[in-house]
Protein: TerC family protein
Amino acid sequence: MEEFLTPAFWIAVGQIIMIDILLGGDNAVVIALACRKLPPKLRTQGILWGTAGAIALRVVLIFFALTLLAIPFLKLVGAILLVWIGIKLLLPEHDDEHGNIQASDRLWAAVKTVIVADLVMSVDNVIAIAGAAQASGNADHQMPLVIFGLLVSIPIIVWGSQLVIKLMDRFPLIITAGGMLLGWIAGTMAISDPAVANPDAWTWVPKLPQTDTVKYAAGVAGALLVLAWGRWLASRAGQSPSPGAGAA
Structure:
């Protein structure tokens, strides 16, 4: 019980909530699109059952992710993916990713659409949340931490999505901070990979001391990498000519 009162636990909870809001904001759009053709009296049921199914599915996926991240080198792969996800957050969006979400006028068909769409879209969330949970430092409380963070953040997404979107539009720094947070988690995840942290295994791999100084330095390096690389790519995208530019 004492672990639930430590600063590390609540910092990790805050990270999970922020990750799920930033990367899971599409969930609210998916739910709205999937349930838009339901009769008004069934929409609330569609939203609730779809959200419940999405939460349950994500908890299962994160459980497997936490298990898999104990395998050497997978944390390094996960860290690379997180860096790219963080960079993508800083890039301008041009395409509508939700145009292929089909609405249904039947309750369970709409619920199935929500759950399947969330499964397809939740890979980035799963990797990021698993990394944040592992960063809390206590393996015994990782799943309670994940479940608590999801239970807090999902209602925020579903019922507060418009406010969150407006805040992000008004304060782009929130998105930048979110991308850097993913870079931070990537850095701390990479140095805790068993291949890097365990001096008795994979001896051909360079080892790093598992001290707080090294952990924070890796986190800062990951955050700055995402910021610098993301801004560079964003500036290049802004300078690129649009397709067909200069055509006669």
